Amino acid sequence: MKKIFLLLGLCMVFYIPSLMAQQIAKEVEQAKRRNAKVELVSLLSIDKQYTHPGVAKEIEKETYFDYDKQEAGKLIQNYPHFLSLKIEANDGETYILDLVSSARSFEGMTVSTGSGRKFDMSTFKAAHYQGVVRGQEAQTLVGISLFENEMTGLIFHKNGNLVLGKIKGTSKHIFYRENLADKIMPVGCAMDHFNLDDFDRDLYMNARSTNNYTGLIQKCVEFYFETEYDIYTFEGETTEAVVSWVTGLYNNVSILYREEYIPTLVSHIKVWDILDPYEEITSGSLLDKFQDEMLEFNGHLGQLLTTRNVGGGLAAGTNGLCNQNEDKRLAISNALVSNIIAVPAYSFSVFEITHEFGHLMGSLHTHDCVWNGNDTAIDGCVTPDCGSTPLPVEGGTIMSYCHLNNDVGIDFNLGFGPQPGEIIRTNVIEAECLEPCCFPNQSPDFSISGQCNDGNWTITATPDDQSAPNHIWELFETTAPGATSGGTLIAYTESGSTITYQGLDISKFYFIRHTIWDYCYVDKVAVMPVPIFRADVRYTLEDENGIEKNQFCIGEDIFLDPTFSNNYDRFFMAVYRRPIGSPGNFSLFADYGWTFTDNIGILNLTQLFLTSGENPGEVFEPGFEYEIQFAIANPPGCIPWKELKKTFTVVCCDVDPAFDVETLCLNGSWLVAGTPINPATTIHSWQVYEVTTPGATTGGTSVGSPQTTSSVTYSGLDFSKYYYIKHSTGYPGCELMASVAVPNFTANLSYVFKDKNNTVKDNFCYGEDIYLDPTGTNNYDRFFMAVYRRPISGGNFSYYADYEWTFTNNIGLLNLSQLFFSSGQNPGEIFEPGYEYELQFAIANPPACIPWTELKKRFTVECCEDFFSAGFRYDLRDKPAGFEVMVYDFNPYSPYATHEWTVISSLNPNGGPYTLETQTTTTGAGPHILYNDGVSGLYYFVIHKVITLCGEYCFIDRKEAYSGGVPPDGPACEICGAGDCSILEDICFVPNDLKINCYPAGVTIDWDPVPGVVFYWVQITYNDPACCNNGRTPSTNTYYTTNTYHVLYGAEQSCFSWRVASICESGPVWTDYHCFNGCEANPGGGSGGNGLSTPETDQVAESGLEKVTLYPNPANEQLSVRLPKDKAAAAIRLLDLNGRVVLEQQQVAEQVNLDCKALPAGLYTVQVIFEDRSQSVHKVQISH
User: What would the pLDDT profile of 1112-1137 be if each residue is shown by its tens digit?
Assistant: First the structure.
């Protein structure tokens, strides 16, 4: 097994010779100067917990990372030209990689597949960089490739290559020194013999003459790559992974050629994603097959890449560049996989690919006897034919076989070495088919065009030479027009052959610096100032005769003539002043603000500052020197502020301060106007004062600022206050004062409280509507109400309800009870009893200058005896679905009462037991349907409870459900009429909705809860003869419970009768007896049915109990109805669910058999009407 050794021992070392590590370092240095503010980026975070068992045995001091795919995705998307990347290793080393983009090498790359499947380059996301390690620029080279899911790279370092890549089959990345990992190397390049006709002897004789290269050669070599199917399978059978692998390798190959000043590009990659045609197992035969398959390819030189070891890489010769025979432009590289399959290892692959391309570009091996100008070898790593040659002390170069000598190894950092490097550079320069990829004569000069579009200052810079590939545009702001240095950088753009800046500040100055660069030349810079837009501001100060002067009398109009100003769309004026002769600073006196016009004309400053501007009313008082600030601008034309200041003085004149006063109310605004009697007076000062006494003209408090207009109008004065106006003109002491009396804006407010009968009063019953009658109130357009209250016993009033403002000029009679309940700011309030209420009632009419006018009055609300009644009317109507209970004709007392309704039923017209049918609450006056499931033969009692803050009131009515027409007269209802509501608490209801259900563990008896009942009895009579024909001895058990169910464990096969009782204060109230004959015999047995049936005989556990019995239940063809002893029935009826009589038998003594064969299956009601008019009602199920 062959190994690549360091100079110190074991493996390939990449030390950069003096010729190398210069081109890329120079490009990085230029990029750093252009990108001084680039931040340090870290895409890898150390995972110290992770280890890989297959890696740890082979590699020492490795570092595992997690790759920040999200941050990497941003970098790939933005693809900055310059990038500083930080990598921290476990050994404490931190590497700062300064990188420049190598995107140019991939711009024209295309991809195809052996299957013909399309590869969308637009979805392939990658970013490739080349650079150096910061602080070790002269000894390092770096190649880094960023992909969506991985990051690969090589750091060529004097102490051994550092490899970065993803561990196969994981998302983890590894970083390690490659000299710590063995690499199985093929024997060497298979090109051991060459034809002397394939090289230029003179070229080799002169190879020791090193040319002075200052930059990249102006020709690009385009590489074609083709990968065997084994690489496709090795990379997880995705074309994208293969393209990532190839471009990552090439990025490092191109570094070595770039350091030889040879620019290269990837022209095309062909990926065999199906079985390829290459089955050969030797280098020569594989190259032959590659040549046979290759009809033509896109590129200057091409290589077939494989992971198979076919005996070494092989090139078709040393005359590949521009060879008309495409076969001579091809090579193969083999064994491109690490012996540690999971670990990325790029050094040998980069070496072999670079080596074979080196042959095609013209270089032979360093042990061939063609060098040094005397046909000798450069090294003796393989014994040359021309005699013994020493081993290289610093290690072998790319075109050597020193990897076969364990004591030497390949030192890739020496690159190609001086002579092989000169051979390939010369061949590239002389290759006529190669085209330049860089033009050193490109110029950075540019022109600037400016545009002003409605004030938006936009400039566009366009290069004179559009061919430059890389541009940097910098916009600087400066304070000096025409400056091309200094200033503040405000915009930096690293792209675009042209640049446009919008929204520039028209008051500032700018210059643009344009930088271009390319591989073949250093930065070129051109700087130009940005041209600005211009305007002129000129004017004179004149009197009314057009005479220019700088001193004016008080009262004299002062004119400004701006005839010679131009290129404006607005002007600005402000006046500053100081006492005449004062050396102090001017202070602001009046601000006229901006006026929008492109034709100013001659301005009367005296009138303008008096009547217009930001603060009209100012006059040019005598005794002052004034400075006028006059400025123009044209923002839509990008003309900033342009100003010119001039000064003048004003001396005194005689004036008359007398004035007239007028007051009025206009749309709610109280207006007070002052007008001078002498219109010739030109200097005015108006001040309004607030006083407490009408007619006062001295003292008081000033309101607002003094006004300096020729006349004055004050608006918005407070209707309830008093004012006077002071007007002065001329010097202090020439003052004339007049007062303004508050006009008598009045309104009337009066109202009384009434009841619904129009009776005026202030004491109301609770539940009685309270009305407000505002008759006599006038001159308003809105009213306000709020209510306060306190207990009748006394105390302070507190806020209770707020109705706020209502806008109307016709209030009308107001129902306060309904308004405060249904409207206002907090609806829902009612006038509760026991309180004294205070109503705050106010009116206003702001448009007529009527302020808030209020009047408060009080009333009380108490509980009145016999005010509330629960009386109602009640109809019991026979409907198809059952009897319907409808109530109506009762007082709703809204919103003072709550109405609760209870419907109960009984077989007896008086007395129980009672069954609760429904309970509900209603709102509104009705009518209301309370219940619609009534059954003929029962008496239905309706209890109406009216609940108020003054107590509860009840009323009861009863009707009989009778489906045969008009029910016969029954006994009088003993509990009907108005009564005590405690009757609801005295009624004890029978448990309802009984069910018996079978379960694997036993039997459960359920019933609905009974209102007011806490305790229940459940009575079970096992082997009851009335239900069971088993001949066993009956036994009765009674159970006490607070639940609404009872469980009989293990009783699922028993036979018994059962019933349930509500336990009330008056005693228990029992349900009818029911039979249970085991889960299999009972309806619903085993499935949760109700299991209800009645005994076959009246021989129940309690002797003497008289009951009607039905059997069988459910019935099939015949139903037997058995009456109690000594009791005869006037009629026995069978009713369907709609209450219709379907069978009837009259005058029954003991028992009757009803024929049910013709009846549909379903639930029916059996009504037994005894001769004494009492009744018994039962439910029966008929099934066929």
Answer: 777 888 888 888 877 888 889 888 76
Could you say which DSSP state residue 1082 is in? S
Residue of 902, 802, 907, 785 whose CA lies nearest to 854 = 785
The dihedrals phi and psi of 380, each to the nearest 5 degrees, come to: -115, 30
- For the stretch 725-748, pLDDT in tens is 888 776 543 455 555 555 657 789
**CA–centroid distance for 493 within its chain:** 32
Local structure of 926: helix, strand or coil: coil
Q: What is the CATH number of domain 752-862?
A: 2.60.40
Separation CA 304–CA 314 (nearest Å): 10
Looking at the predicted structure, is the pLDDT value of residue 505 above 80? yes
What's the gap between Cα 691 and its chain centre? Answer: 59
| Domain spans, the chain | 1-17+988-1100, 38-430, 446-528, 540-651, 659-741, 752-862, 872-979, 1109-1182
Q: How many CB atoms lie within 10 A of CB 682?
A: 20
Q: CATH fold of 38-430, please? A: Collagenase (Catalytic Domain) (3.40.390)
Share above pLDDT 70 across residues of the chain, in percent, rounded to a whole number: 90
**Residue appearing with tokens 């936009």:** 458
User: Order of strands, edge to edge, in the sheet holding 82-88?
Assistant: 40-41, 82-88, 94-101, 126-133, 141-147, 151-156, 162-166, 173-177, 63-67, 44-46
Mention every residue, 6+ apart, whose C-beta is less than 8 A from residue 819.
785, 803
What's the confidence (pLDDT) of residue 1045? 87
pTM here is: 0.49
CA distance 903 to 689: 77
Among 505, 637, 506, smallest CA distance to 569 is for: 637
Same topology for domains 38-430 and 872-979, yes or no? no
Quote the tokens at residue 858: 């009080």
Q: What is the dihedral of CA 667, 669, 674, 679, to 10 degrees?
A: -40
Q: Which architecture characterizes domain 659-741 according to CATH? A: Sandwich (2.60)
Per-residue confidence (pLDDT) for residue 36, from 0 to 100: 62
The SS3 of residue 1125 is coil
Contact 989, 1010 (CB under 8 A): yes
Domain at 1-17+988-1100: CATH code: 2.60.40.10
- Nearest Cα residue to 30 out of 611, 575, 519: 519
Q: Are 608 and 590 in contact (CB under 8 A)?
A: no
Q: Is the domain 1109-1182 a CATH 2.60.40.10 member? A: no
Write the CB contacts of 811 (distance below 8 Å, at least 6 apart in sequence): 774, 777, 780, 783
Which residue(s) pair with 910 in the sheet? none
Strand 1045-1049 relative to strand 570-579: parallel, antiparallel, unpaired? unpaired
- For residues 1027 and 1095, is the Cβ–Cβ distance under 8 A? yes
Contact 727, 738 (CB under 8 A): yes
Instruction: Tell how strand 301-305 and strand 330-333 pair up.
Output: parallel
Distances in whole angstroms, Cα of residue 843 to Cα of each of 726, 806, 840, 855: 34, 10, 10, 9
CA distance linking residue 1149 with residue 565, whole number of Å: 130
The identity of residue 957, as a single letter, is D
* CA dist list (Å): 537 to 532, 542, 603, 953, 1045: 16, 17, 15, 94, 103
pLDDT value, residue 1018: 93
Average the pLDDT over 61-80 and give the result: 93
Written as one letter, the residue type at 301 is L
The CATH classification number of 540-651 equals: 2.60.40
Cis preceding-peptide flag for 562 (omega within 30 of 0): no
Share of the chain above pLDDT 90, in %: 40
Say yes or no: domain 446-528 is CATH 1.20.1560.10: no
1008-1027 residue pLDDT tens: 888 878 888 899 999 988 88
pLDDT band at 304 (very low <50, low <70, confident <90, very high): very high
Please give the Cα distance from 851 to 873 (Å, whole number). Answer: 54
